[in-house]
Amino acid sequence: MKKIISSVIKYIILIFLAIYTLAPLVFLFINSFKSQDEIDTSAMALPHNWDLKYIVSAMRDIHFFKALLITVLVTVLSVGIIVLVSAFSAWMLVRNNNKVSKFLLLLFISAMLIPFQSLMYPLIDMADKIHLKNIFGLIFMYGGFGLSLSIFLYHGFIKSISKSIEEAAIIDGANIFQIFFHVVMPLLRPTTITVIILNAMWIWNDYLLPFLVLANSDAKTLTLELYFAKMQASQYGNPWELIFPAVLISIVPVIIVYVFLQKYIIKGISDGAVK
Asked: Which of 19, 90, 109, 143 could form a disulfide with 81 if both were Cys (CB 3.0 to 4.6 A apart)?
């Protein structure tokens, strides 16, 4: 009897948490098919007509496909730089175990404690002077800001890898790059997946840095397009008619990626946690 009661309570809690988690998404979905008047009248009610014109209008207003391409480009290249540089740097720090390596590791760890707000004005001023207020400058900045945490994660994992594996590769005639890409990186897969997830989510959803770097540019990320489209719609008194469908189509790519890669995402996080 106690087991039955315990199971019932557990399922009630899980159902409540599921509803609590999905409610905002359901609210966003149903209001993406409504006019401003319908939203103002009853935001919780289902739309009278499931008309796609609001989503089509939102895609046009936020230049969806252009912004999506730019966001994907920035995210993929930034994450690629972070993974390669942080993994190689952490490997070198672990294998060269001396005072300099320990000092450099402490520098990377301490960099995680510095708030971005204290750096953003001098950073943007410097970027403006050297003509890096563009997409490539944004990618470069993301690559730099993502290194500290990623090196910290890789460093802890690499310490658990036996050095004898690399020594065997050296005996077989492998050079440093062959050892890294063919021996070390495959072993770092769980941590790499974790690093990719953490950085990709941060870069995809970030607003402040793209705003500071790309606000005056024609090339804008999805978050920037949402902001400027909202500002423009507010002038005409119908921001929600645009905001709901615009946010919906902005999160669809992330949801699709998660649905297809959830097995690898969960496995990567759990394997990394065990290590």
From this structure: 143
Helices (H), the chain: 2-31, 36-41, 53-61, 64-95, 99-111, 120-129, 135-145, 147-158, 163-171, 176-179, 185-187, 189-205, 208-214, 222-234, 239-274
* Radius of gyration over every alpha carbon of the chain, rounded to an integer in angstroms: 23
Q: What is the pLDDT of residue 269?
A: 56
- Ramachandran bin of 173, using left for φ above 0, alpha for ψ from -120 to 50, beta for the remaining angles: left
Mean of all residue pLDDT scores within the chain: 85
Is pLDDT at 225 greater than 60 in this prediction?
yes
Asked if pLDDT for residue 68 goes beyond 60, the answer is: yes
What is the C-alpha to C-alpha distance for residues 222 and 74, in angstroms, rounded to an integer?
A: 11
- Residue whose C-alpha is closest to residue 209's, from 254, 272, 146: 146
Contact assessment for residue 127 and residue 168, using Cβ atoms and an 8 Å cutoff: no
Q: For residue 268, name the pLDDT band (cuts at 50, 70, 90).
A: low
φ/ψ of 60, rounded to 5, equals -70, -45
What CATH number labels 50-274? 1.10.3720.10
What is the pLDDT, as a whole number, of residue 270? 58
What is the tens place of the pLDDT at every residue in 175-188? 888 888 888 898 88
Q: Do the beta carbons of residue 43 and residue 244 sit within 8 Å?
A: no
Q: Which two tokens stand for residue 48?
A: 């009278």
> 239: which 2 tokens?
């921001």
CA angle (104, 134, 80) in 5-degree steps: 45
